[in-house]
Batch of 2 targets.
Target 1
Amino acid sequence: MPHLTAFEGQVLKAASVIPFGETRSYAWVAAKTGRPKAVRAVGQALNKNPFPLLIPCHRVIAKDGTIGGFAFGVSLKKKLLVLEKEILKQFCQK
DNA sequence: TGTCCGCGGGTGT
DNA sequence: ACACCCGCGGACA
């Protein structure tokens, strides 16, 4: 747990709470941190993404549903979202 | 849709 | 203290 600022901690915390197969907006995360207008700062925090494997940062997308960006590539982010969606579907069927 | 501006926090200088 | 970066959001045309 490298030196994270309080704000970054809040962001990561909020992001880690996002349920599997679901998505939230940057504004949503920002609201969770108590800084509703700090959406850009949220993006920066997620971009740094100290724990890519622990934080579902790919579940955080823009409010209009578009992918803002992703540290490992937007295409991968899309794939991950689709993949989770598919997996979730499998669980519902079986 | 496309453009523009305000926004908060982190980091470098 | 200042400037610049950033995975945004909302307003407006």
Note: The beta strands of chain A are 24-25, 60-61.
Target 2
Amino acid sequence: ASTWNALIAMSVEHGCAKQALEYLQKMQNEGIKPTAVSFVCALKACLSLNDLEEGQKVHTQIAKVGMDSDLYIGNTLIDMYGKKGCLMDAFAVFEMMQKRDVVTWTALISRLVHHGLELDSLVLFEQMRQQGMKPNQITFGCILKACANLPALEQGKQVHALVIEQDLELDWYVASALIDMYSNCGTLDRACVIFERLPHKSVVTWNALLAGYVQHDLGLKVLQAFRHLEQEGIEPD
RNA sequence: GGCGUAUAU
């Protein structure tokens, strides 16, 4: 099965999703049982083909062989249904899962935010923490985006406090989310403080700051910052 | 044990 899985995974990775699904079928025709890895890759293939129906078929197959308790499969199903806008299905999978990890929670939170359900994402984030699940950089990125979209400065500040608790304020990914959140909440000064504190600035954090200036119609600041960025030898993208 | 899942502009 691992040989087949390698074929399936490679096909998906190289954008040959159709072929990946063919391999899944072929391995079964040859009497080889797909593993959790096969199914995760197949679901990913369905998502990249934008084929929800095929994804549902794979889901049914997964349920038949009793593999829907696999953590990775559950997480991938949440992602697939969420990205197809089937939030109810994503939530149903979430509810059914026996074990959840930080990816499970983050995947659902991420989809809620993308669908304009920022308030629900905040509730879910709170539940996650109450159950003792520690958010990671990606979780913080998503939840800060929720605060930025609303915008919700007070909630954003509370999340910021948690970021500091976990010593993630200097993480480039979290930092750019903080910058984005503060500038979106109309507090560009706070965004600048985060930026200034960063010892290693990357194109991502610079972009977040530039976007803030643009949003606040500070054209001159944008140009100044851009020149500064070039002086530091950072490649704009 | 490894491989497969969430992630900004």
Note: The radius of gyration of chain A is 21 Å.
